Amino acid sequence: MPRSSSQDRRFLELHGGKWRVTVSVPRDLHDKLGTKLKQPLHTDSLTIANRLKWPVVGQLKERIEKARGAEASAPHIADALQMAELRKQAKTEEERESIVEGIYLTAEMLRGRVVGEEPDPATGEPEPLYDPENERQSVEFARVALGLATPIDLHHGRYLEGLTVKARTKADDERAMKYLKQWCSNEGVTPVLEAFNKKTAVRFMDALPELLPGLTPTTLNKYLRRLSRYWQWLERRHEVEHNVWHGLTLEEPQTPHDEEERPFTDAEMVKLLTGETTQHMHDLMRIAALTGARIDAIVCLKVKDCRDGRFVFKPQKKEKKERACPIHSDLQQIIARRTEGKEDEDDIFPEWPAPKKEGSKRERSFKASNQFTEYRRKVGVDEVIPGKRRSLVNFHSFRRWFITKAEQADQPENIIATVVGHKRQGMTLGKYSAGPLFEQARRCVEAVRLPRWQK
């Protein structure tokens, strides 16, 4: 039978003839807070207790979240979301009205005491004044609890859970949301989806260079793209009417041709491949030079990924699945040495283990990349342009070098794209197939040779 306000005992218990609020504490917090939090309401009427309980329930749940160490920067929003959910779950109109009354009571409590008076513009009658911040929180709470407003990050966690991107990209999503909320706070914009239209989005875009001084338009546009992806996801779920970020980008300065990142020259390759460094760095560079693979795909290789004359690289960038690449004949000795006596799940490069810190967003190749940069500079392979953060030559220059040499060896463009994992139309190189396409890829790989004096 549906509950009415004279029957609903959720969060309530009688104690000494009076009603009090009780909220159960999660088991992992029993040592800190006990099994239940309680607060008396000083009434023997269940109907009145049901009107008074909701603000108290919110306060007690806030204590639980604080004890757990959760962020409590906007507890009134967390309370409002709980009230909104309870309102949705109400079984009867009487129960719903009771919850709505609790919402208004909580909003009134948030508004606080009167701090002054001002005349009503229409009647001239004195009207009470409240603290502006308390008034803002009171209005925000009521709008969210009554289902009239949706916090911009309400669905963001679920959105992130469904993403199949690198941890680094997810970190960009989190930063983009953080910057958006920071801007809302600075500008007095209520951080709810309903507050965002095209004009609001443009305001945020225009404010980004000042909000994040020192970052290039390219980096700032990355955050705009991540917000656009989130709004696309919301649009598909009918949480917003349209993606307000569509087409919004800051103008990026044109890069002069002589300032673009480039392949290594053969002379630079000689310096790198003959310099004094560790054996694992030499092995890493040679694999990069003769596959065109990205550094993280190489560092993450396992023994099972280097069988039957082919590498199997994990998906990178926009690749949807792992990618096979023939093992160059000049790499066979390296692979034999690095796989000898090892199990399938052993790492090819145990010298660069995965980050130990749980939840780390760093790629496994982070240290390898830093060590290569230090080595590259030590042997004098560098090209720094004033005002640019990165050298025009970096580990990715091995990939550019491989593609350049394959093109110079008259290898078909579509086969080069297949080998290095660039987006292309038509067939893909199968993991197990030894058909014509794989043989074409093998010829492409073998056509690339290290500088003659390096063999």
UniProtKB/TrEMBL annotation:
InterPro entries: DNA_brk_join_enz, DUF6538, Integrase-like_cat_sf, Integrase_catalytic, Integrase_recombinase_N, Tyrosine_recombinase_XerCD. Residues 339-365 are annotated as: Disordered. It holds the Pfam family DUF6538. Keywords: DNA integration, DNA recombination, DNA-binding. The keyword Nucleotidyltransferase does not apply. Residues 354-365 have a biased composition (Basic and acidic residues). The keyword Cytoplasm does not apply. Residues 259-446 form the Tyr recombinase domain. It comes from the Bacteria. PANTHER family: INTEGRASE_RECOMBINASE PROTEIN MJ0367-RELATED, PHAGE INTEGRASE-RELATED. Belongs to the 'phage' integrase family. This is Tyrosine-type recombinase/integrase.
